[in-house]
Amino acid sequence: IVRDDGFGGIVIRNHILGFETLSDDGTYVVLKIGAGEDWDSVVERSVTMGLSGIEALSAIPGTAGATPVQNVGAYGQEIASTLTELEAYDMKEKRFVVLKNADCGFAYRYSIFKSTENRRYIITSITLKLSRIAPQPPFYDSLQKYLDEHNITYFTPQVIRDAVIAIRKVKLPNPVLTPNTGSFFKNPIIEEWLLNELRKTYDDIPSYTMAAKRFCDGEFNVDGISRVEDGEAVRGIGVKRRGIFGVGVVVDVKGTDVGEK
Length: 261
What we know:
The protein has 261 residues and is an alpha+beta fold.
């Protein structure tokens, strides 16, 4: 986000558009999407087609090509679960390449594009495999809570999208009125024994068991690992003060300040 009057530099914007159906077998639909497409518009369009797989990633600002970098995830879904491959320009090899899901090194909020191969690839398109099968409960806790509170028992991609947007509107300001880039946090991932130790002191700490996930072209096993809610970890466990187990909070935000403070 920059000031309306600009700044002393050059911004290169990826504006590669495109939304193409590559295949449709009646159950699964494969879409090829230009990296410069507005992400929420992509989600909206896929939901309109009755497709499931990215509906919980609604109202996330940015472009389609940025989603693999962070392995964008929200409310129980993440891009790694639907992305089959992507096309990119390899600035090291000086050629266009195709990277399969397994090549991207996806993990929780992680990929090679933000780590070992940072700044190497310019993503030009992504290919997603979405489903015509209706989303099924149980859903992510806060999403399930919203559905229960509003007595919603019939689930479609549109219903889930609407619920996620409603939840986000409460948490974040309207970007039209208050420009913002959304929110990002990464919940701590700990082993089961440590979670049990924490519960001896904080028995109500929210956590989610990270069971095995099946990505588009393989299985990612994380059995025995749990994810605890970051905010609760800071407030409840005392990590903000480097208390229990000597764990602390590290702020690692990278950006460019081009406006007035």
